[in-house]
Amino acid sequence: MASSIGSAPAKIILFGEHAVVYGRPAIAVPVNKLSASVEITANPELNPGVVHLIAPDIHLKSDLHDLSSDHPLRAAIQVFMAYADIKVLPACTIKISSTIPVASGMGSGAAVTVALLRSLAGFLNAAIPEKILSELTFEVEKIYHGTPSGIDNTVITYNMPVYFVKGEAPQTFGVAQPIHIVIGDTGIASSTAAAVGDVRKGWLTDPPRFESMFDAIGEISRAARRAIEDGHIQQLGKLMNDNQAVLQDLGVSSPELNTLIDAARFAGALGAKLSGGGRGGNMIALVNASKIDDVCGELHAAGAHQTFSTIVK
Ligand code: MEV
Prior knowledge:
Strand content: 15-25%
CATH topology of the largest domain: Ribosomal Protein S5, domain 2
Bound molecules: (R)-mevalonate
């Protein structure tokens, strides 16, 4: 194919981050307003194997062979070539763009990988089933954050709400009433790998304490699934606050996240918590539709870098 485009959405974790790495359930949903997109264009005048990469959002302009071997973009291309049994790529330019804030807990890395793999599959006329796409993305995710649970690649590949337990097939669930979520970005880039690594250090130091926090989060995720399926929105808000309390005990919140979470609750959110790895990145608030503007306004006043809203239905 002379050119090909692939895309993938952002994601937020509604419940269960960190504990999901330790086998407890978590709930994540795609955010289609924000996405990564990859366009590949053939350069038939150049020699096979000459691959230009352009990613203006991260100021990257490079030839593929000049990227370090553990660079996630190079890794994504390599896992795809191994899967499709391709030794040399046709000469091409790969242009990557994304509206997903980087290092913000919204899955920008996984979304770029999924978009890139989809685009490569189209460009090379190689079919790639969703299950394989998710698995290949998981391989690349290991470079981004060491011991991923697999939730990001799953929700982003399948582009549907997921109830996820590590190592099990993802389940989806019914949403009895539309759920309105406001997302507030602290503007602070945060490494998921570092947050996950610190939680691991804590767990290794005091396993019973951390296991009981993971259990508490697992119970919250189970209860949240029931509340979503039954349309108990007030209850869901309370569960978000409960989840945030345990995340604070885990040590993955931050003063900036706490400020935004307090601001959202003050403006009438039914519940609020950090979303993703924590330490920086994004928080989410569950709101009635009539409160979206109030909560966004209060978040901006409290220092949010940007806000988004999304509906889960
Ligand atoms: C990252 O979006 C969610 C974490 O639970 C890590 C993971 O599940 O891989 C923090």
